[in-house]
From TrEMBL:
Matches recorded under InterPro entries: Mopterin_OxRdtase_euk (IPR008335), OxRdtase_Mopterin-bd_dom (IPR000572), OxRdtase_Mopterin-bd_sf (IPR036374)
Source organism per UniProt: Pseudonocardia humida
Oxidoreductase molybdopterin-binding domain residues: 297-428
Protein name, entry field: Molybdopterin-dependent oxidoreductase
Region annotation (Disordered) ranges: 203-224
TM spans (from-to): 36-58, 98-116, 137-157, 163-186, 234-254
Amino acid sequence: MTRPDAGYGRPARLWRALDRARPPLPRFRSPLRGPWLTSLLGLVLLVGLPIVVVTGLLDRVAYGAAPIPADVGFLQLPPFDWPTSPAWLFRLTQGTHVLLGLVLVPIVLAKLWSVAPKLVVWPPARSVTDALERATVLLLVGSILFEVVTGVLNIQYDYVFGFGFYAAHYVGAWVFTGALVAHVVLKLPLMVRGLRSRSLRAELRTPTSGSEDDPDSDLVATDPRPATISRRGALALIGGGSLLVAGLSVGQVLDGPLRGTALLLPRGRTTAAADGGPNDFPVNRTFVASGIDPAATGSAWRLELSGAGAVRLDRAALAALAQHTVALPIACVEGWSTEQSWTGVRLRDLAALAGVPEPVAAVVGSIEQGPFARAELHAGQVLHPDSLLALRVNGADLSPDHGFPARVVVPALPGVRCTKWVRTIEFRSVR
């Protein structure tokens, strides 16, 4: 095949030099690859991945002033008071973000398999336009693999990164979003043509013996092997993989009897007690892992309130105040959630006790040290009638793993901001 620039001096010599420098590249011989299959997988991802991105950004808003992520410069979202109603809002957004992200992994891998011939073409680019397109593909593939790998590792294991996961995952999401938009702008017409090249209904009726390769495409193998599976079989395999992932994960979001089936979210299966008692439900960080001296939560513990004045209360004094019981979910960044019945003192009652009946914010301090030792709540979260400093759960005292002697529980608030082992609450009349 004659190149457009053949015979034009230096460019022609460049092409010949590149051809001579061609590295050994893999050969792809499956007859299933082609515009139709690639476009169909791309359409599914074009619907699903924006939902994952949007729910992830909403979850970032839900964290408010928490250090998740750290300083990300101009990528920082504008401040926004996360609503407290419905109480299951964060449970929905975070559960969707993690569960849908996991379900799409087999489809992402299948899409990468379908375009593998284009990822290893030589030379990598033949024009400036081609180089720009390849750059968007490189960013797209690199960023989605980074998001998948770091996201899955964060779900499966305690912190294993040598960098700030939250900031890196957040910036990676923006890189992926930009690359996706650029890629869609460049490839949408090709995707539409690819979808029209074959009939989905016809392909679902076509056996392996009738699975012909697509003509006139750089995705099609130049020397294809006979098909060993039909396109409908490939779609069933990919879809079955996604259904399997969903079946092994959804129990963490729905809670209840299905929790035992959620094998892909082991961090959320950790329980504070294995006896089926009132405190037998998941935790992300145990009392032992927190590194707190047990004496700090013993009889000498006091809650310190500050506002217009300072108030110190021991646990018996807190228990003597008006108690409120409410069923609220705790939802974690790893995607798991659980709903329990909490009993304690309303935060707005404690604000009034501190002389700030209409606070604009509250800062909760924990005995625990580290990035989550402090959490800021906005006025709506403090004044909501179901926002509690909880002392009991399911009719029993909190266990150490669940925040004894007291923890914050607020509707729709991420679990990591429902501070455990509370020591101080500062109610502010100005922000």
